[in-house]
Amino acid sequence: MNPLQFETYDYVIAGGGTAGCVLANRLSADPSVKVLLLEAGGADDWFWIHVPVGYLRCIGNARTDWCYRIEPEAGLNGRSIGYARGKVLGGCSSINGMLCLRGQSNDYDEWARLTGDPRWSWKNVLPVFRRSEDHWRGADDLHGTGANGGWSASACVGMFWSASWRPHNRLAYRDARISIAATTSASAISR
Ligand SMILES: Cc1cc2nc3c(=O)[nH]c(=O)nc-3n(C[C@H](O)[C@H](O)[C@H](O)COP(=O)(O)OP(=O)(O)OC[C@H]3O[C@@H](n4cnc5c(N)ncnc54)[C@H](O)[C@@H]3O)c2cc1C
Questions:
Q1: What distance in angstroms lies between residue 125's CA and the mean position of ligand 1's atoms?
Q2: What's the 27 CA to ligand 1 centre distance in angstroms?
Q3: Which one of 83, 96, 189 would you pick to mutate in the ligand 1 pocket, going by the greatest count of ligand atoms within 8 A of its CB?
Q4: Would the pLDDT of 80 be above 60?
Q5: Which of 1, 102, 166, 175 has its C-alpha lying 20 to 30 A from 111's C-alpha?
Q6: Cβ of residue 105 lying under 6 Å from some atom of ligand 1
Q7: DSSP letter, residue 56
Q8: How many angstroms separate the CA atoms of 186 and 136, rounded?
Q9: CA-CA distance, 69 to 81, in Å (whole number)?
Q10: Beta-ladder partners of 79
Q11: 133, pLDDT greater than 80
């Protein structure tokens, strides 16, 4: 299509980042709906975008990052530091750490209480989490499988964390396990 020759769309999504891509995917699941997704950055076909810890090459790189800097901050002794934001299809999720950790069940229940909206409760958000997953261990009470384009926790993630956290940092690893165990929802790095 000639990019200057605009057609008519049912939905125009500004920003092909994390939320924009999910939204476009959901909306375009209906073949009768025409969706235009506009992304300021380029394609996500660079090798390092798809490699865990490849973000070290993506952050601060104009190919994938807006390369923002914060204003000099008194609390940082007057320094200005980089503030990474993805400028590429997939947005920040193309340059992030690929870690997935849910909040604690109490947090969601507290939000439901504070907002008076029961849709925030753990009971009601859990099915949404499960529906968006393709968990490598298969489905259970806390996890789901078969999501189209959903995240999947791979064995590789577990290996990466155990290898990097032990044995020199066994205490931190144990503490991390405890704090994550306190998170009612088990997640990618939980075991
Ligand atoms: C370095 C880094 C590491 C992170 N690590 C993790 C992690 O391990 N786990 C985790 O859960 N979260 C992590 N996050 C946070 C998470 O990635 C973000 O919160 C999330 O991706 C934000 O999604 P979003 O859709 O709100 O915005 P984005 O994904 O940033 O999407 C916005 C999109 O809009 C585009 N855009 C902006 N302006 C325009 C314009 N004018 N026209 C067209 N397009 C435009 C941008 O280029 C971008 O693609 C990390 C974030 C960063 C930056």
A1: 22
A2: 20
A3: 96
A4: yes
A5: 175
A6: no
A7: H
A8: 13
A9: 6
A10: 73
A11: yes
